[in-house]
Write a structure and sequence with these properties.
The chain is α/β, with parallel strands linked by helices. The chain has three domains: about 10-110 and about 300-320, NadA-like (Rossmann fold), CATH 3.40.50.10800; about 115-200 and about 325-335, Rossmann fold, CATH 3.40.50; about 200-280, NadA-like (Rossmann fold), CATH 3.40.50.10800. About 40% of the residues lie in helices and about 15% in strands. Helix 9 (about 180-190) links the parallel strand 7 and strand 8. The protein starts with about 20 loop residues before the first helix and ends with a helix. The protein binds iron/sulfur cluster.
């Protein structure tokens, strides 16, 4: 029996970025562009970070994407230096896949509740206790946890990879997100033993408040990230990763969508579909703790000022023990090679 590794509200930091004047924003953007050019560096940003950082990534020839594409993009780009705007496991993944490149992040304090909730020593004991199972870990884990795995998956490819393993008759040990694990187990019918971590952002979406919101917007489509609870997932018209949510928003006929994922994605959703309306799924209602209020406090640390200072001071470099890196590369490479 695995203990509950979800973080308590008091364990989640509050992060409230400064609201910048137009003049300060422009000055920071100029400093960042200069630094990227001087360092021959490419900026790779996640959909959940500050919209200004996302725009800069695109304007300077970098990319904005989900964690799977971020990993692939950094590996394939010819820049000597990768600047990863996201949370720490994303910087670590970039370094594992490109050990010859220097990888920096705006801040190494940008954590993830799933990564924190999967301590490597305890996870190793769990694997030891279940030697007959194929170990599949979500990308939101440390390099040490990845090094213990047979497969790494993201929310874009987790379902397809588990389906493939189940078809080969393999029993699975899954970590760390219990909601995503339960969703995949239910969809595939695979035999999955679940670790018990959770994303503090997606776990806060509330079923009852969402049902109330649907009564207000009866024609709205509901788009849900599978790190949300099963009851919220059940209400979705489309369930998927950030990239899959973007695709559903473009393909479904609705003009309005209620979206249960980090509000950072709304920047891209509104750019991609300017004639559609996107509403945040509620994190209030019965039992609400609303610590993140639909925005990851660690992703929020990736803002212009932090990024400019890290580039100028050369801070936030990611280092991985080369032995751990080599071991973690194997399950990561399996994911990247998996036909999509
Ligand atoms: S949104 Fe959730 S899964 Fe993503 S980095 Fe933040 S805590 Fe981790």
């Amino acid at each position: 029996m695995v203990r509950d590794y979800s973080l308590k509200p008091a364990e989640v930091p509050l992060f409230d970025p400064e609201v910048l004047t137009a003049k300060k924003r422009e000055a920071l953007r100029t400093r960042i562009k200069r630094q990227l050019a001087e360092k021959n560096a490419v900026l790779i940003a996640h959909y959940y970070v500050d919209g200004d950082v996302q725009d800069l990534a695109e304007e300077t020839g970098g990319c904005v994407s989900d964690s799977l594409e971020m990993a692939r993009y950094g590996r394939d780009h010819d820049a000597e230096t990768l600047i990863v705007a996201g949370v720490r496991f994303m910087g670590e993944t970039a370094k594992i896949l490109s050990p010859e490149k220097r990888v920096f992040m705006p801040t190494l304090e940008a954590e993830c509740s799933l990564d924190i909730g999967c301590p490597p020593d305890e996870f190793e004991a769990f694997c030891r206790d279940n030697p007959d199972r194929t170990v599949v870990v979500y990308a939101n884990t440390s390099a040490r946890v990845k090094a213990l795995a047979d497969w790494v998956v993201t929310s874009s490819v987790g379902l397809a990879i588990v389906e493939h393993l189940d078809a080969r008759g393999e029993k699975i040990l899954w970590a760390p997100d219990k909601h995503l694990g339960a969703y995949i187990a239910e969809k595939t019918g695979a035999d999955m033993l679940l670790w018990s971590g959770a994303c503090i952002v997606h776990e806060e979406f509330k079923f009852q408040a969402l049902a109330d919101m649907q009564r207000i917007y009866p024609d709205a489509g509901v788009l849900v990230h599978p790190e949300s609870s099963a009851r919220v997932i059940e209400m979705a018209d489309a369930v998927g990763s950030t990239t899959q949510i973007l695709k559903a928003a473009s393909e479904l006929p609705n003009d309005t969508f209620i979206v249960a994922t980090d509000r950072g994605l709304f920047h891209k959703l509104r750019r991609a579909e300017p004639n559609k309306t996107f509403i945040e799924a509620p994190t209030a209602g019965d039992g609400a703790t609303c610590r993140s209020c639909a925005h990851c406090p660690w992703m929020a640390m990736n803002e212009l000022e932090t990024l400019a200072l890290a580039l100028e001071n050369g801070t936030g470099e990611v280092f991985i023990d080369p032995e751990i890196g080599k071991r973690a590369m194997v399950p990561l490479q399996r994911m990247l090679d998996f036909p999509r």
